[in-house]
Write a structure and sequence with these properties.
The chain is built from eleven helices and 13 strands. The protein is of the alpha/beta class and 296 residues long. The strands form four sheets. A seven-stranded parallel sheet has the order 3-2-1-4-5-7-11, sandwiched between helices. Strands 6-13 form a two-stranded parallel ribbon. Strands 8-10 form a two-stranded parallel ribbon.
């Protein structure tokens, strides 16, 4: 199987490369820094600097994971433009290129996030739920998904993977939290009652592989474990994992002063169930937080 991956040098992309290289797949990674691809993704991965290099390659699938980190810096006007360009403009460019191919890939699996729903409060959400509270993050995800869905009229099956907080020892948001928790400086954020949808990295990779091989899978799927937890419970579990108390409290008003609108990522939440994900036969290896943390 021949697969093109955007965002292949990222956390999820690197793990996908390892998973599919072990299966003997032929992998191409489109990157702004192609010289880094083999070092990060594996010597057998083909680095692509420009899409036209693949005009004559018959691809089976495209995995679109590219996007600048949403929570790394405050959402200034310049940062918002970068977040949109790295997701929406890139996806539009990708779909435009696919439209020119004589042999189009069978499937486009495109990244998205649970931020699509907005702050859902206590409302139980599934893939069929509407947006709960529109903000910058929800519009970002909605436009990202719409750009990917433009491949459907081209005869390409489109799958949208709405990912929660990814748990892994390889980086991501846990890499920022663990040092604080190991020092006993961890704790709840805001009220601590907001829901935190999460997924273990192994399950994220397995789900993308699963929908790749399910011809009937199309549309949105929640990449979130079936047992979400509240922020306070997450902090307690992480404190127990590193054998430190997790009693430090970050008040909501302080987070808002520090982060502005971006504080909504921490103070809001989604009580999500992966209804469509389970319906297509996917089984989570790590369904509860305790087992996921123990596996890190």
């Amino acid at each position: 199987m021949r697969i093109l991956i955007t965002g292949g040098t990222g956390l999820i992309g690197r793990s996908l490369c390892q998973h599919w290289l072990a299966q003997g797949y032929e992998l191409y990674v489109w990157s702004r820094t192609p010289e880094r691809v083999k070092r990060l993704c594996g010597d057998a991965v083909h680095a692509v600097g420009e899409l036209h290099e693949l005009d004559q390659v018959k691809l089976d699938a495209v995995i679109n994971l590219a996007g600048a980190p949403i929570a790394d810096r405050p959402w200034t006007q310049a940062r918002r433009k970068l977040l949109r360009d790295s997701r929406i403009a890139l996806t539009e460019r990708l779909v435009s290129w696919i439209s020119t191919l004589e042999h189009k890939p069978q499937v486009l699996i495109s990244g998205s996030a649970v931020g699509w729903y907005g702050d859902g409060g206590e409302q139980l959400l599934t893939e069929n739920s509407p947006v709960q509270s529109p903000d910058f993050a929800t519009q970002l995800c909605a436009d990202w998904e719409a750009a990917a869905q433009a491949a459907e009229p081209l005869g390409v099956r489109v799958v949208l993977v709405r990912t929660g907080l990814v748990l892994t020892s390889k980086g991501g948001f846990l890499a920022r939290l663990l040092p604080l928790f190991r020092l006993g400086l961890g704790g709840k954020q805001g009220s601590g009652q907001q829901w935190m949808p999460w997924v273990h990295l192994d399950d994220e990779v397995a789900l993308i592989d699963h929908v790749l091989h399910q011809p009937e899978a199309r549309g949105a799927y929640n990449a979130c474990a079936p047992q979400p937890v509240r922020n306070q419970a997450f902090a307690k579990a992480l404190g127990q994992h590193v054998k430190r108390p997790a009693i430090m409290h970050a008040p909501g008003f302080v987070l808002k002063l520090m982060l502005g609108e971006m504080a909504g990522l921490l103070l809001g939440g989604q009580h999500i169930q992966p209804e469509r994900t389970v319906h297509i036969g996917f089984e989570f290896k790590y369904a509860n937080l305790k087992s996921a943390l123990a596996a890190l």
